[in-house]
Amino acid sequence: MGHGSDQEQKHIVSSENADATADAGHERGEDGGPVWDVVVVGAGPAGASAAYAAASAGRRVLLLEKAELPRYKTCGGGIIGPARDSLPPGFVLPLRDRIHAVTFSLDGKLTRTRKSRKMLFGLVNRAEFDQALVDTATKAGAVLRTGATVARVEQHGAAVPDRRTAAVILSDGETVLARAVVGADGSASRIGTHVGVELDQVDLGLEAEIPVPATVAEDWAGRVHLDWGPLPGSYGWVFPKGDTLTVGVIAAKGEGAATKQYLTDYIARLGLSGFEPSISSGHLTRCRAAGSPLSRGRVLVCGDAAGLLEPWTREGISFALRSGRLAGEWAVRIAEAQDAVDARRQALNYAFAVKAGLGVEMGVGKRLLTQFARHPAVMHTALTGFRPAWRAFARVTSGATTLAELVRMHPVAHRMLSATHKPDTAPERDVK
């Protein structure tokens, strides 16, 4: 059976599951359709984690995804310790490589490789990883529906039967009702727009998937390359995944031509220009502004839709998994809320949980980015020549500690970053 037929069969199975849920005596809307406890929009790591968390709590969960799965995503696919520790129990990572060494360079110069006996992090193909997460969510009871593009969310008006319900309107006009909605629909999120997410930092990532011969692949096995780039705050990476190298660069938005040239030069310096990329792609990453809302009424946002990622490295998978799990858990409480006051209380609790953990890490990452953009050579010298800095890098990537804990526990790191400290003390705005 061909790939297209498999996707069609998946969609039919999902629809049948949805019908079965509606026929099982569950609550229905005025049009006879089911009222879901939780509807999750977007089946990436954040959405799949949210759907798993809510379904594991025994709630009726619908997971909406506009694409057919599996699908390609522009992403290095690095699974650091905090991401691994946030996976569902028993989840088996579809690793393509295990990294024990990092080669650092400063715009192609001063190259040095550091090694670790312990695995620093793993590498995955996003299509395989995302599909495995979705499969875990559906096994927990969530119903997946692909090919479903969300046009908007409404919490008032004719489409909403009562104050305990939100309406998710699909592009074909269909209305899906839910007691709580989780927006996990990426950095260009429609749900994020509904919530009023505000962004503070936007970067352009460019990436090439380059198939290489076995001899080249062997040279890269178990080792990644990180290059501190020529543009302020920019860097490049090579992530090996068997017979393919994922090569990318990232820099602040607004320097598109220079960022593209950086990628071209980087690939050439690595001796990879002679290999034809199977995929060349680009993607904008967006970080939330301090005080940006994470909810509105019965709607929460998580992952890229909320602008949650580490500002320096722009690592987003661990933030997606962690915020997605929290969103799923708090969406269950919002679904149980009998009035707007209780729903708002639960939403504020979600925001507090996100800011107390991920928000603190983002604050440290922002300060690291500021220092890195000003003094990339200092960062390079520290990581390649100062053993405590390398050990700290290894401990963060392996999950033994976090950036926030590192700064709190080490006076030198604290002093280095204190000059750029701007805490996220702004209260979340109440969006009506």
Runs with pLDDT <50, length 5+?
1-25, 419-423
Strand content: 25-35%
Largest sheet: 8 strands, mixed
Shape: globular
Tally of DSSP β-strands: 18
* Computed CA radius of gyration, to the nearest angstrom: 22 Å
The number of helical segments is 13
State the helicity in percent bands.
25-40%
Mean pLDDT figure = 89
**Structural class assignment:** alpha/beta
Alpha-carbon distance between the two ends: 49 Å
Structure in words:
The protein is built from 13 helices and 18 strands. The chain is α/β, with parallel strands linked by helices and 432 residues long. Strands 1, 2, 8, 9, 10, 11, 17 and 18 form an eight-stranded mixed beta sheet that branches. It has a seven-stranded mixed beta sheet with strand order 6-5-13-14-15-12-16, with helices on both faces. A hairpin with a 2-residue loop joins strand 14 and strand 15. Helix 9 packs across helix 10 (376-385), helix 10 packs across helix 11 and helix 12 crosses helix 13. The radius of gyration is 22 Å and the shape is globular. The N and C termini lie far apart (49 Å). The model is unreliable at 1-25 and 419-423 (pLDDT under 50).
